[in-house]
Design brief:
- By secondary structure, the protein is an alpha/beta fold.
- The protein folds into 2 domains: 3-180 and 217-241, Rossmann fold; 186-214 and 245-281 and 299-318, UDP-galactose 4-epimerase, domain 1.
- It has 12 helices and 13 strands.
Length: 329
Amino acid sequence: MKRIVILGAGGVFANHMAKHFLDIGYEKVVAVGRNPRLPRCHTLGIGDNDHRYEYHQIHIVFEQRRLFRLFEKIKPDIVMNYAALAYANSWTDSDLFYKTNLVAVVQICEYLKQTNYLNKFIQIGTSEMYGPTLDKPAKEEDIPNPTSPYAVSKLAADMHLNTLYSVEGFPMNIVRPSNCYGPGQYVYRIIPKAILYLLSNKPFPLEGGGTAEKSFMYIDDLNSAVQLIVENDVLGETFNVGPEDALSMKKIVFEICKQLGKSTDEYIKMVDGRIGEDRKYWIESAKIKEQLDWEQKVSFEDGISQMIAWVKEYKEELKTSPDLFTLRA
């Protein structure tokens, strides 16, 4: 019976994480997000009518006193941080990325390390801190090579947490997942955006011809990995979590066309690539497989099928969701 606070729970992946812990019987799941709860097409009704679930709108940069009062009320034994400004094109207003992804994390951990109830702090990092990985997948001990302010800010938070653990024994773990996707995702991300475009009979603009490659993992597989890290005595360890192979953006969109019965010639429009985008992100997950017996269970094809079903169910609502990222403080 555990009590968990999940930061960044306005986003899809933390929202699914909340559902996962409710499903396995946690005593209290408290979600914290910077915005009011999103419409059902994004929240999927997770936590509705469940007395164990609470959602609090708290900004982790500007409302830390409210956040710390919530900690004292709930007294969570687990705090999990999904909160981040997470967009690779971060050269404009870069300070916002450092304030959210680094400084706020430092301040939160500074507070939590003085409490007597915290058993584990889980930081959701990013595989982008390894930089482009063309020849082989990145391992946890590889030298970082971040190529954007976003990736630098996430790496700096990881390094800070490592010092807290090694010097003061702060009970933490770092998870570096590959790119994830799942129902409820914002429609400016490539998979839901492509599905929505094709279902609306609009040609999808494929940036840079779709040559960039990334490892894509369905959210259920990340949830199972995080659960294993939470429930095992592996404090201080960092774990990569992702599939064995990277996929090109072209292959992803072609699979969506295939499942929807759309012609790639008719429904894919080649446009210029994103400035500064890395050629390939690819990680090795041997460590979590060997130490915690984790395995990926949802194939890419099955994951895309589930995404299509979600977009079809909420198509009209999703049409009103922004399909471009907007940077906010």
